[in-house]
Design goal:
Layout: E1 8-11, E2 13-14, E3 20-21, E4 39-45, H1 49-61, H2 66-75, E5 79-85, H3 87-116, H4 120-142, E6 151-153, E7 159-162, H5 167-179
Antiparallel strand pairs: 1-7, 2-3, 4-5, 6-7
Helix pairs in contact: 3-4
Amino acid sequence: MTYPVDSLRIPAERDIDGRMSIEWFRVSVCATHGSPATVQRDMPILGSTSEWSAWWMVNRSARMIPSASREWAQHHPSIVAVWPLCEVCRTRAKRKLTWVIACAVASVVSLLAAAVVGVKILVGALLLTSIGSILMLIFLASRRNDDGTACQATPDLSAVVVTRPHPAFYEEATRAIRNRGYGGYGRPR
């Protein structure tokens, strides 16, 4: 759904570690739905959908290997953010993760069944199912979440641009940006 408000530009600043960040930006409204945020999620804001998909895959698959996540972050600069998500956005993100896990499990089960079964027609069907599950897994993982993150970092990482903000989010975010230098939200510039 599109709302009759302009895109919103949230300026980023360097944090203590030297990374660009909008962690000073705290609002209590979801950007997509305008509903009250139920969680503030730590996440990077990347410059493109393909980078987002790659981050999503690395984060989900290598979350137990911090060095892989750090190495990927060095090659794909992003803006560190704490982003507000409502219950609808959280449910959609959980649903996507559930589908990705289900496709991965279906693919593995089909491959194992194809290795065990001796009937050629059944082996072919199981291999086809496995390939289809892998393709579905790639499709789901490459789609960007519609979980309240309708935003991208600018190429120079100077700001986050929210492309389709809800009017309630737009209003609260504009107020936060205006009050930023006056001790209301974050450090003065």
